[in-house]
């Protein structure tokens, strides 16, 4: 694949097409610390707890991320949490990202601070993000869109913003590209009131 490979929301000519993300599973530490972060801080309901069917000595926790997609963990009480940053070699998970309601942005910031969590805040152009880490040092991004994007049109909107960005020679997708993509697709343009922040991209 080259830099010129087309970006499009059209399905590729492939033998199969996925219909969505069912779940992502993380090798976690223990249940108590995992539940404290993902349920009690991030607000994800714990919807299923059972043995790891491949290794019954482990427990398998299922959290609903908010749209019916699951985030699951293999945990064991004999593993202590370790908040040191994780190494991310090729093939490793760099970070997890979860969307939240832009109207609750300041509430989310306050919750992180009340929990004693360090975080970084960035304006990423088409979205606004807070970066923190979980009980095991995995980077977690809490993100919200600058403009309202319908879930069933997200890929189409982003691919259109990409075409507009490339046409302008911009380094990355910015809010203006997203607004113009929404207008081009005859979608409502609803901008969220988010605070100013650095991009954090090294391009400032």
UniProtKB/TrEMBL annotation:
Residues 20-145 form the VOC domain. Pfam families: Glyoxalase (PF00903). Keywords: Dioxygenase, Oxidoreductase. One of its GO terms (molecular function) is dioxygenase activity. It comes from the Archaea. SUPFAM superfamilies: Glyoxalase/Bleomycin resistance protein/Dihydroxybiphenyl dioxygenase (SSF54593). Residues 1-21 are annotated as: Disordered. Transmembrane segments: none annotated. PANTHER family: RING-CLEAVING DIOXYGENASE MHQA-RELATED, RING-CLEAVING DIOXYGENASE MHQE-RELATED. This is Glyoxalase/bleomycin resistance protein/dioxygenase.
């Amino acid at each position: 694949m080259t830099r010129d490979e087309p970006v499009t929301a059209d399905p590729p000519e492939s033998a199969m097409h996925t219909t969505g993300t069912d779940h992502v599973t993380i090798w976690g530490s223990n249940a108590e610390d995992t539940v404290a972060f993902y349920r009690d801080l991030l607000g994800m309901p714990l919807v299923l707890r059972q043995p790891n069917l491949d290794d019954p000595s482990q427990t398998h926790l299922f959290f609903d991320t908010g749209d019916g997609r699951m985030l699951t963990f293999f945990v064991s009480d004999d593993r202590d949490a370790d908040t040191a940053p994780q190494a991310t070699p090729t093939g490793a998970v760099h970070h997890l990202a979860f969307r939240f309601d832009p109207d609750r942005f300041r509430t989310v910031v306050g919750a992180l601070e009340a929990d004693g969590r360090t975080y970084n805040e960035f304006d990423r152009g088409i979205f606004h993000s807070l970066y923190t880490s979980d009980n095991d040092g995995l980077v977690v991004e809490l993100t919200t869109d600058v403009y309202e994007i319908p879930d069933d049109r997200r890929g189409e909107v982003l691919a259109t913003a990409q075409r507009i960005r490339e046409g302008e020679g911009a380094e990355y997708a910015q809010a203006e590209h997203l607004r113009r993509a929404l207008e081009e697709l005859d979608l409502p343009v609803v901008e969220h009131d988010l605070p100013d922040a650095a991009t954090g991209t090294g391009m400032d």
